[in-house]
Amino acid sequence: MPTLALLDGLPVGVSMWKLAQPWWEFVLRALLVYGFLLVTLRLTGKRQVGQLAPFDLVLLLVLSNAVQNSMNAGDNTVGGGFVLVLTLLAVNGFVGWLTWRNKRLETFFEGSPQILVHNGVVDERKLAAERMTRHELMAAVRQAGLTDLADVRVAILETNGRINVIAKTGPAPSAP
After folding, report:
1. Cα–Cα distance between 88 and 53 in angstroms, integer?
2. pLDDT tens per residue, the chain (176 residues)?
3. Rounded to an integer, what distance in angstroms lies between the CA atom of residue 59 and that of residue 88?
4. How far apart are CA 105 and CA 91, in angstroms?
5. What region holds the YetF C-terminal domain (predicted)?
6. CB atoms within 10 A of CB 96
7. Which one, out of 54, 108, 124, 165, has a CA that is 20 to 30 A from the CA of 101?
């Protein structure tokens, strides 16, 4: 048997590169899937992006597998993979550039920071809207070196999912 084995009736060197679909269909499919995932992941909230729990990571892995066939239309060629990778990198770069140039688009894609605690008072509605528990909030407060919400001037949920906690300043409390 010749060194070039046959795969689907074509030599291996050819079958790796012969696209089953036109290149522009890969681009269109990648754009559609990218847009769909971007919007649906944005709707799940900031906390999902910045603080991946193990089940969140599993979800992202399963999502990538779930959308694979919708992007490649069953085409497993190297060329098809290259077209998809280039398309996804290009559209991601373009969205990054758009959000850098346009603050409205930045807010749409990335959201805006949310004040969760102001002068020791928790905004329960914002906490619920971000699907964040008081336990998660207190973990961020403790990470900032505080133990009581009364010592928090402001706690802000940033667009990247991190919680920044700023302590109240002033004289140290006197001992009784």
Report:
1. 25
2. 444 455 555 556 667 778 888 889 889 988 998 888 888 877 766 554 556 666 666 777 778 887 888 888 888 788 888 888 899 889 988 988 998 999 998 888 888 899 999 999 999 999 998 888 999 999 999 999 999 999 999 999 988 788 999 999 854 454 44
3. 20
4. 15
5. 101-170
6. 12
7. 165
In angstroms, the CA 164 to CA 8 distance is: 57
CATH class of segment(s) 114-167: alpha beta
Number of residues written out for the chain: 176
pTM of the model: 0.63
Where on the phi/psi map is residue 131: left (φ > 0), alpha (ψ -120 to 50), or beta? left
Please tell me whether residue 152 adopts helix, strand or coil conformation.
Answer: strand
Contacts of 156 (CB under 8 A, 6+ apart): 113, 114, 115, 116, 163, 164, 166
Relative to beta strand 121-122, strand 152-157 is unpaired
